[in-house]
Amino acid sequence: MDNLFTRPEKEFSKVFERCEAFLSDLDKLPCLQIGDFKLRLELDDDLSPEMLEVAVKELRETPEQQEKSIAELKELLEKDNDLKVPIDNKAWLIRFLRPTKYYPESAYKLIKQYYQFKVKHSNIYDGLSPKTEKNIFDHDILHVLPKRDQGGRRILVIELGKKWKHKKCSLDEVYKGAVIFLEAAIMEPATQIAGAQVIFDMDGLSLQQTWQFSPPFAKRIVDWLQDSVPARIKGIHIVNQPILFNVVFNFFKPFLREKLRSRIVFHGTDRASLYKQLYQPCLPECYGGTLDVPRITGPQWHELLLTVEKEFDDSNNECDADVVVEMLDDGFKVEGLDKTGKLYGESGFVIKECGESLDEEC
Questions:
Q1: How far apart are alpha carbons 193 and 66 in whole angstroms?
Q2: Using one digit for the tens of pLDDT, what is the confidence trace for 49-87?
Q3: Ramachandran region of residue 283, left (φ > 0), alpha (ψ -120 to 50) or beta?
Q4: Cα–Cα dist 43/31, whole Å
Q5: Distance set, CA 201 to CA 162, 163, 204, 269, 285 (Å)
Q6: What percent of the chain stands above pLDDT 90?
Q7: Total Cβ atoms within 10 A of residue 167
Q8: Helices 171-185 and 309-316: crossing angle, nearest 10°?
Q9: What DSSP string describes 216-275?
Q10: How far apart are CA 71 and CA 7, in angstroms?
Q11: Each residue of 199-225: b (16+ CB within 10 Å) or e?
């Protein structure tokens, strides 16, 4: 089956005054020529008719609804004196409205949870950018396939088996790499609408590698995917997993809600099962696919992402306020008081509420 969401290649050497998807003042769309293939972030593309139809049917997106929801979300954010975000950036607001189906209250909740999560895990997120995480890309165990799937979704592949040298590349580095990829993906309008799929290739997973996982790490991953990222995760596909993988998955089970649990599919080496979810033309040969584009390596993706380094820097600074706290699982831990008597911590902003979770179907 052909991918109806794939648009013809165009020339992308044009320098724009400013791409609406950017928070920073970058004025050139990221693009890297690899042989005959042009690797790029699809930030300024016109959406295909098929993708526009998905937006209407699945996200309630119409020009009228979009305008109304943006206005209501801005009003909610303006009333929040502690949360300072780029409310005048229409593209940034849409990043949070699309995964919440244009319900302003849900988008507002997602924005708060997005930043709460960054506060809670500031040891991971402070200064996070492609420049600081070269090692994970050099190990080439994490990459995005060059073509979208049959539903127009991006496909992220994470190889945590025999290719993963866990003594040279930590599990936290793998997580950071995944965050960087997903943060880049949610800049793309088509990905905001269609979502993303993730393939975990566990071929050759060893006992020593299973020891790298822990309940706190598993909880962080699940909390991130379920409540704290403005992305539609449409499927998680486990392939080539040995029996030993059950040990790893048991760490994640207690934290999974039904929606995400239902989207996890264990394929093993059953390629027919995989093809029911991801069609062969979008998969590389190693999975029995017929992808007609050479594999894009981790270092090549890193080179592309470095072109939007400034966007990551600005994103790290996009939220600011006078109050900051350290968030625990059951609430906030007070770090101190500023001269006005307000609570403060280390990360530069505050969010008063915690412990919320999104109930909207994404």
A1: 13
A2: 999 999 999 999 999 999 999 999 999 999 998 888 999
A3: beta
A4: 11
A5: 10, 10, 9, 10, 14
A6: 69
A7: 8
A8: 100
A9: HHHHHHHHHHHHS-SS-EEEEEEES--TTHHHHHHHHGGG--HHHHTTEEEEET-HHHHH
A10: 32
A11: bbbbeebeeebbebbeeeebebbbbbb
Q: State the virtual CA torsion across 286, 289, 290, 294 in degrees, nearest 10.
A: -40
**Residues counted in the chain:** 362
Report phi then psi at 182, rounded to 5: -70, -35
| Phi-psi map region of 236: left, alpha, beta (phi>0 left; psi -120 to 50 alpha) | beta
316: tokens are 């790290």
Task: Name residue 298's amino acid.
Answer: G
d(CA 259, CA 213): 23
Q: Which residue has the higher pLDDT, 320 or 12?
A: 320
The conformation of residue 3, written as its DSSP 8-state character, comes to: -
**Tally of CB atoms within 10 A around 66:** 19
Q: Note the pLDDT tens digit of each residue in 278-316.
A: 999 999 999 999 999 989 999 999 999 998 888 887 766
